[in-house]
Design goal:
five-stranded mixed β-sheet, 13% helix, single chain, mainly beta
């Protein structure tokens, strides 16, 4: 460093010198500026934050290697939002909507200096769920002719999470990309296989959600294999399916066993048992060959209804026949079906039925005989009245 006083010639300038040595001054991080500030980020998205560090002179300086990032909610770490050492914040798909996170950049300092920090906010926003995949369950199933099967779906969004089934989801059943009439599926995913469906045919079951962000639909498929209707019993059909009978009448009924397709199946091991309401207007008599219904010949039972139940032995399969008692029916005995009886084929049940039949016939004959007597007495009374009226008219004529 030189100080100089200029002089007039011939005098020389007056100077003095000193030495100044430049020494290094450390740059100290003093402030941090985070960009961007106060951002809103949707669920399932990320946000890159950048920290600009300035020294004690206000100059931008290289970011210290010790700078750290944190994301907190009410001063506590929240798993729904994370941030890495590079300042990349990740908002998980299940983060709470509306939650305001504090993003902090920190440069640790050596005591007695305090750490240098800066903060900004990140607010979690809702991200609409978009159906992305559909899984149809079961994916493969065998269904008998005449039966049905319930399909269901699991819909997942763009994050791979299960989401509610969209209301626009539709179902279809096709064979070789064309509708196959014997197999249908309703809007609830219930597939019905007709009794006439071709055995071995593979039907494609498709669940479809219309495209939301594009014209591409989201679909899921399953396979339905048509198999023969089994010989397993599914229901009982009583013939006739309803019955109206007079007081004291008899009627023969029968029953058939059906499979799931509604087809009659026969099996020598099938045994059907019968029962009627206790204390009701009807009784049922049966053995291995015959089933008869008897209405009790009591006037108080007129208009009443009785139930006859057929049960496939060893199962819970039942059917009920409703019998209405009508005293206004003239026919004393009603046989809906006549089956030849082998007189050599004796059983206590048959004898009981025959005895009941004979009893009813006897009552009918007695009623007819009583009716004839009552008719004769009525005619006699009418004759007496006629004679009295004739005599009365004659007396009146004599008086006149």
């Amino acid at each position: 460093i030189t100080a100089t006083i200029p002089m007039t010639a011939p005098a020389s300038d007056v100077t003095a010198t000193a030495m100044l040595t430049v020494v290094h001054t450390s740059r100290v991080p003093t402030t941090i500026i985070i960009t961007p500030t106060d951002v809103t980020v949707g669920q399932g998205n990320t946000q890159q934050f950048i920290a600009v560090v300035r020294d004690q002179f206000g100059d931008v300086m290289p970011t210290p290697t010790g700078l750290t990032w944190s994301a907190t909610y009410n001063n506590v770490t929240y798993s729904g939002v994370t941030i890495n050492n590079s300042g990349l914040a990740t908002v998980l798909h299940n983060a709470t909507v509306g939650r305001q996170m504090t993003i902090t950049a920190t440069i640790p300092m050596t005591a007695p200096a305090s750490d240098v920090t800066s903060t900004t906010t990140l607010t979690v926003a809702d991200t609409p769920r978009i159906p992305t995949t559909i899984a149809v369950t079961p994916d493969t199933v065998n269904v008998e002719q005449g039966s049905s099967h319930q399909f269901s779906v699991v819909v997942r969004d763009q994050f791979g999470d299960v989401m509610p089934t969209p209301s626009g989801l539709t179902w279809s059943a096709t064979y070789n990309n064309a509708t196959y009439q014997p197999v249908t599926i309703n809007t609830a995913g219930l597939a019905s296989v007709g009794a006439n469906a071709t055995i071995g045919r593979q039907i494609t079951i498709t669940a479809t959600v219309p495209g939301i962000i594009s014209t591409n639909n989201v679909t899921g498929t399953a396979i339905l294999n048509v198999i023969p209707a089994s010989s397993a019993p599914a229901s009982i059909r009583i013939i006739p399916n309803s019955l109206t009978m007079p007081l004291g009448g008899f009627s023969q009924i029968t029953a058939e066993v059906l499979n799931h397709a509604g087809i009659v199946i026969t099996n020598p091991n099938f045994v059907i048992t019968w029962s009627s309401d206790s204390h009701g207007p009807i009784n049922v008599w049966y053995d291995s060959n015959f089933v008869f219904v008897e209405t009790i010949p009591t006037e108080t039972f007129h208009g009443q209804i009785g139930n006859i139940t057929a049960t496939l032995q060893g199962t819970n399969i039942t059917a009920t026949l409703v019998v209405t008692v009508d005293a206004n029916i003239n026919a004393p005995i009603v046989l809906s079906t006549i089956i030849p009886v082998d007189i050599n084929d004796y059983s206590p049940e048959k004898e009981k039925i025959e005895n009941e039949y004979d009893s009813v016939k006897t009552e009918e004959v007695e009623k007819e005989e009583v009716g004839e007597v009552e008719q004769e007495e009525l005619e006699q009374e009418e004759a007496k009245v006629e004679i009295i009226e004739t005599n009365s008219e004659n007396e009146n004529n004599d008086i006149n």
